[in-house]
Recover the amino acids of this structure.
């Protein structure tokens, strides 16, 4: 009986440990916190089965050899984990953490060309999710069986910024009735045009997050790569529209648990489950998200705050910089880059610059463009439409007519985009609002001229008209002197900022003049003229 009991105990211990492993899926790797937790659980299981049933008194505790060995091993594991965590921390490895990412300083107008609004994302993730759910609600043949996943990965697809996300089973019961056939489609949203498509697949998605057993993507990857420590997965499509799971593998650069970057990436076909394992430098160029935005921002914060050591980052904070609280994505050079501002740790309301960080390569570029931080610009834009109660999405920093400019969508309480705003980074009280992107850009360009932000020696493309002056009126607008003209060619009003174009005083009614101007809603802004 005693021998049989021992066999049953061994089987029970293996069974419990196996169930725990199957559910929690820890990596068999000393760098994984989950692995150390797994060791602790195994020790506790052994103690619970072998030692505790034999303990009745304090004397039993003293005499129980297995219990003493088990408690000692448990304490050793806890101590090793604690010491490893301390030795891996920035407290004693500040220099190593600060050097995890290489930052290159670049010129704004050289790298960030004047914006093409057909290639920048006009929506944020929340707005994309509204469109995706609305599209799903219109698919009567699927809506009762499937839901839309909340992933919404932003990628470049055929040189267009889009968000893609798979469908998922609506409930365990719906999984039971549909898992044989798999998930039939994914959602794709064009972030520039807001066009939303439900892409039906010839071969369904069999490996996903909403599977429960071996086809669950996390379990599928773990059983094939038991030692890999994966970062968060993303859903992407290649240039042919084939769905894949992009599964980054963490690399620990400092001690046991510290200095996390990405060293490899496993790409799994969501339809067939086939996997390919790449070193990070060999990752296919169609992949857009290997490094998550949160990881990249953390790496830059290490770089900015630990320049003069850990203690300085807490107390003196001399020369310490950090990223602002939000971020957005920018399509550049056929990659997706994370954008965020850089400010001092003192928490003032200005940025000293901003960074772009490549989600595939970890390349980091810093641009020394000082001005208002993003939330000040958002508040400035919201102030222009406060009577409507619209809320600003986190902005993008773009180049408009050579000026660093925050561009953002303004949304109503339902999360729908109603207007667009452009805010000058260096003079954030200068705000332009438009119902359309083109209307917002026109209003912004006119504002640049009217407020003297644009200089005549800068290149700013406009339209041209020649005619005879039929009317001239002088006015002062916001402390600036303006001359308003009308020509015999049409009834349009033309606005000349005398602070920039003083030569207009030489002209009078009846003179012929050629105007170069930017179209506006109430008046066209003159940027140059000639006889």
């Amino acid at each position: 009986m005693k021998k049989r009991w021992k066999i049953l105990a061994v089987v029970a211990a293996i069974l419990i440990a196996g169930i725990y492993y199957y559910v929690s899926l820890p990596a068999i790797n000393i760098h994984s916190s989950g692995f150390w937790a797994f060791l602790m659980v195994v020790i506790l299981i052994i103690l619970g089965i072998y030692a505790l049933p034999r303990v009745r008194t304090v004397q039993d505790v003293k005499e129980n050899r297995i219990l003493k060995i088990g408690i000692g091993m448990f304490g050793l594991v806890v101590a090793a984990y604690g010491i490893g965590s301390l030795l891996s921390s920035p407290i004693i490895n500040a220099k190593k953490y600060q050097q995890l990412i290489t930052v290159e300083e670049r010129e704004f107008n050289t790298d960030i060309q004047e914006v093409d609004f057909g290639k920048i994302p006009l929506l944020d993730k929340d707005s994309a999710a509204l469109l995706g759910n609305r599209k799903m609600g219109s698919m009567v043949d699927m809506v009762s069986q499937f839901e839309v996943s909340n992933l919404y990965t932003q990628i470049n697809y055929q040189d267009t910024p889009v968000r893609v996300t798979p469908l998922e089973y609506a409930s365990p019961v719906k999984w039971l009735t549909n898992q044989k056939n798999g998930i039939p489609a994914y959602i794709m949203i064009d972030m520039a045009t807001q066009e939303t498509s439900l892409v039906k697949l010839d071969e369904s998605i069999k490996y996903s997050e909403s599977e429960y057993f071996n086809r669950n993507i996390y379990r599928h990857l773990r059983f094939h790569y038991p030692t890999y420590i994966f970062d968060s997965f993303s859903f992407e499509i290649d240039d042919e529209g084939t769905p894949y799971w992009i599964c980054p593998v963490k690399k620990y650069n400092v001690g046991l648990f510290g200095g996390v970057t990405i060293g490899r990436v496993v790409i799994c076909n969501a339809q067939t489950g086939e996997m390919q394992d790449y070193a990070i430098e060999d990752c296919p160029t169609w992949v857009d998200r290997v490094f998550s935005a949160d990881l990249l921002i953390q790496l830059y914060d290490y770089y900015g705050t630990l320049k003069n050591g850990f203690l300085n980052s807490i107390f003196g904070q001399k020369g310490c910089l950090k990223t602002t609280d939000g971020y957005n994505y920018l399509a550049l050079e056929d990659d997706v880059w994370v954008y965020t501002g850089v400010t001092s740790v003192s928490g003032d309301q200005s940025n000293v610059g901003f960074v772009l960080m490549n989600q595939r390569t970890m390349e980091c570029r810093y641009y020394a463009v000082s001005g208002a931080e993003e939330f000040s610009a958002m508040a400035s834009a919201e102030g222009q439409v406060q009577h409507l109660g619209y809320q600003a999405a986190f902005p993008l920093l773009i180049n408009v007519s050579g000026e660093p400019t925050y561009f953002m969508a303004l949304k109503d309480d339902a999360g729908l985009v109603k207007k667009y705003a452009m805010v000058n980074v260096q003079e954030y009280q200068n705000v332009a609002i438009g119902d359309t992107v083109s209307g917002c850009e026109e209003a912004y360009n006119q504002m640049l001229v009217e407020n003297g932000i644009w200089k005549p020696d800068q290149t700013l493309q406009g339209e041209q008209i020649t005619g005879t002056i039929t009317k001239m009126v002088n006015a002062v607008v916001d402390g600036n002197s303006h001359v308003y003209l009308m020509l015999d060619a049409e009834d349009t009003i033309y606005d000349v900022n005398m602070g920039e174009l003083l030569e207009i005083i030489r002209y009078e009614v009846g003179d012929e003049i050629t105007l170069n101007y930017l179209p506006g809603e109430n008046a066209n802004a003159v940027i140059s003229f000639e006889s």
About this structure: DSSP finds 13 helices and 27 strands in the chain. The chain has four domains: 2-87, 125-290, 374-450, 463-530. The mean pLDDT is 88.
